[in-house]
UniProtKB/TrEMBL annotation:
<dbReference type="InterPro" id="IPR000524">
    <property type="entry name" value="Tscrpt_reg_HTH_GntR"/>
</dbReference>
<dbReference type="InterPro" id="IPR036388">
    <property type="entry name" value="WH-like_DNA-bd_sf"/>
</dbReference>
<keyword id="KW-0804">Transcription</keyword>
<feature type="domain" description="HTH gntR-type">
    <location>
        <begin position="2"/>
        <end position="69"/>
    </location>
</feature>
<dbReference type="Pfam" id="PF07729">
    <property type="entry name" value="FCD"/>
</dbReference>
<dbReference type="InterPro" id="IPR008920">
    <property type="entry name" value="TF_FadR/GntR_C"/>
</dbReference>
<dbReference type="InterPro" id="IPR036390">
    <property type="entry name" value="WH_DNA-bd_sf"/>
</dbReference>
<keyword id="KW-0238">DNA-binding</keyword>
<dbReference type="InterPro" id="IPR011711">
    <property type="entry name" value="GntR_C"/>
</dbReference>
<dbReference type="Pfam" id="PF00392">
    <property type="entry name" value="GntR"/>
</dbReference>
<keyword id="KW-0805">Transcription regulation</keyword>
<protein>
    <submittedName>
        <fullName>GntR family transcriptional regulator</fullName>
    </submittedName>
</protein>
Length: 234
């Protein structure tokens, strides 16, 4: 069975974001194929996609390497998200489906419940799902794709502090969902702009955190990561 290149791409991207591969490190087709249990063909295709996304660069005499973004490039990502997240929320207020709204409200209820209980383990994932659903509700595949790439890159370049007040943080999610439900694009935009600005303040660059990356790398360096496992996110 031929493993789709997009599945290999997802697996490599996830490992880059997790810090398995250090910035500037070489990514050889042979080693990647062995790690993910695939042939070199989907690896080659995946590397081309990741280069287009900015996670990989091709260097003379070295081949494919993990990109080494600058601090300015990292700062630009937060600024881009500050502009695009509110746009997505405004569009979602006009284009969302009942299914989108049901998921948004379900995530808000679950997030608020976990926040009140002081259980923060799942809050970051729930927040990511909320914003991913909000982007999908915009009805714009191009915008959704851009926001998804931004989230991946921001997770790669930044460590994120949890919100100082999780209950208030999830109340903001609830207000955004309410504005989307009412079709109030301007309110959805303004609430999301403020929410994103406050969230951006909790981001710290990972650059220079070599020790932290080493710990993550040691944990997974010797493990094989077959991409045809059911648990893989697509």
């Amino acid at each position: 069975m031929r493993i789709p290149a997009h599945s290999v791409c997802t697996a490599i991207r996830d490992d880059i974001v997790a810090g398995v591969y250090e910035r500037g490190g070489r990514l050889t087709e042979e080693l990647l194929a062995r790690r993910y249990g695939v042939s070199r063909v989907p690896v080659r295709e995946a590397l081309r996609t990741l280069e287009a996304e900015g996670f990989v660069v091709t260097r003379r005499h070295a081949g494919a390497c993990v990109a080494e973004p600058t601090e300015q490039e990292a700062a630009d990502l937060l600024e881009m998200r500050q502009l695009l997240e509110p746009l997505g929320a405004s569009r979602a207020a006009q284009r969302r489906t009942d299914a989108h709204l049901k998921v948004l409200r379900g995530l808000v209820r679950l997030g608020q419940e976990r926040a009140r209980q002081g259980n923060s383990d799942d809050l970051r994932s729930l927040g990511g799902w909320f914003h991913e659903t909000l982007a999908q509700a915009s009805g714009s595949p191009a915008l959704t794709s851009m926001l998804t790439q931004l989230r991946h890159k921001i997770a790669w370049m930044y460590a994120v502090d949890g919100p100082p007040d999780p209950v208030a943080y999830w109340a903001e999610h609830g207000a955004i969902a309410d504005a989307v439900a009412r079709g109030d694009g301007e309110r959805a935009r303004s609430l999301t702009a403020l929410h994103t600005e406050q969230a951006n303040a909790g981001h710290r660059l990972r650059f220079g955190s070599g020790a932290d990356r080493a710990v993550r790398t040691d944990r997974v360096r010797n493990s094989q990561h077959p991409v045809n496992m059911p648990s893989l996110r697509h």
